[in-house]
Structures are given as structure tokens and as C-alpha cells.
Amino acid sequence: MSDSTDESVTREGSSHGYRVLLVDGHPLFRQGLAATVDLDDGFTVVGQAHSGESALEVAARVLPDLVVMDLGLPGISGIEATRRLLRAHPGTRVVVMTASEDDDNLLAAMRAGARGYLFKGAVCEEILRALHTVGNGGAVFSPAVAERLGALFASFADAPAKEAFPTLTAREREILDLLAGGLSYHQIAHRLFVADKTVRNHVGSIFSKLQVNDRAGAIVRARNAGLGLG
To answer: Which residue in 229, 208, 230, 210 sits closest to 221, CA to CA?
Structure first.
């Protein structure tokens, strides 16, 4: 398999079972994952992609039932690729498989529509069981991920308003608070001793994570959560 090209691996006589697209930036990992998926007659690997952009292109060609998606992809992230893929193909189901143990990534993947979240290093049986569960309409998380989710949701129940947006970094939450308080980008930059461009970059990330199109939308979300009132 090439490091620089993606491939559609549709096979003759493989019309049964779930059609699987593998998305990962490391060809050797994709090879190993493909070998694992091939162990089960219920799955057929119909395509592979090395980046988020190529995942969208390949998915449009092969129309997979299931996608195994890495998060740390070149170009657009696995989270953004998941969001766009599911918008274009709402019947497809995505299982995230990543080395990242970051809570923000876990929550962002769920918000993007992922139906499963596994850490790389999961054993073959766990991977195949997850694909079957998600393929049948369920959701699945490894025991370690389930434990993290339980802890996160428990902490959210007691979290103050300023923790209402768990996917934001501490700096982004700080900027959103100031934005909701009525400060301009220049005033925020002066307050935080950073460049105006830095503030605008953070604001762009905030808009993306909150799924709003402009400053007004972000301020409404922030004030509803109690930000900008201090």
C-alpha cells in the first residue's frame, strides 16, 4: 500500500456484510487494521484514506456503511472529517480509533456524531465487536473510555457556568467570557497582552467548536451559560 495514495479496495463477490472505510495517516497501521477487519466475514474493506480530505473523497466513491476514523490526520482533523462525512452521508456510522486520551477530543468526536471511540492498541476481538455493535445501530466505547465519560458527565453536573463548554480550551473560554462581556477583539488582545491576530484565531476556533457563524451567535450561547456577566 502506498504512503501517498488512497485506494478503493472493492472486491469481487463481496456484496454481503458491512462495507468499511479505514482512515488513518499511517499506512502500516491501516494494513494491520485491514487484516483485523478481514478476519470477520461480516465486513469488507472497500476503501482506505490517509487524510480527512481524502476520506471525504473516497467515501463519496465507495459509500461505506462503517468508517474507522483516526483523529490526528493531516489537513482537516478527524473530528471535522467525521462531521462533514456524516452531513453528506447520514446513514454512515463512524467509529473513532485514536491514540489520543484527551477529554476534549472525546467529547468533540461525540458531538461530531461518532458512534464509537476506541483507543489504538485495542485487541482484535474488541475492534470487531465494536464494529458489529455500531453496524447494528448501537454505540460502543472501550472500558477505559466509558470510565472517562462517566467521570466527565459527573463533573459536568456540578460544574459552574464557566465550564459549560468543555471542548473549549481555558484560553478560549477566557476569550469567550470577555467577548460576552462586550469587549472588542482589540480590547481583549490588550487585556490578555496578545496580538489582535491571536485573538481572532482563537475566536475562529470558538465559533467552530460552538457551531456558530458569528460573534452574535457566540455571545448568545455564552450568556445563556452565564458567561460575560461578571
So the answer is: 210
Residues 188-221: pLDDT tens digits? 999 888 889 999 999 999 999 888 888 888 988 8
pTM higher than the cut 0.70:
no
**Residue 66 near residue 20 (C-beta atoms within 8 A):** yes
Which helix H or strand E contains 159, and what residues bound it? none
Residues 6+ apart with CB under 8 A from 213: 207
Residue 2 forms part of a structural domain: no
Examine the fold and report which residue of 127, 151, 175 is the final residue of a domain before the chain moves on.
151
The CA-atom distances, in angstroms, between 31 and each of 35, 72, 96, 121, 155 are 6, 17, 17, 14, 39
Residue range 41-52, pLDDT digits in tens: 999 999 999 999
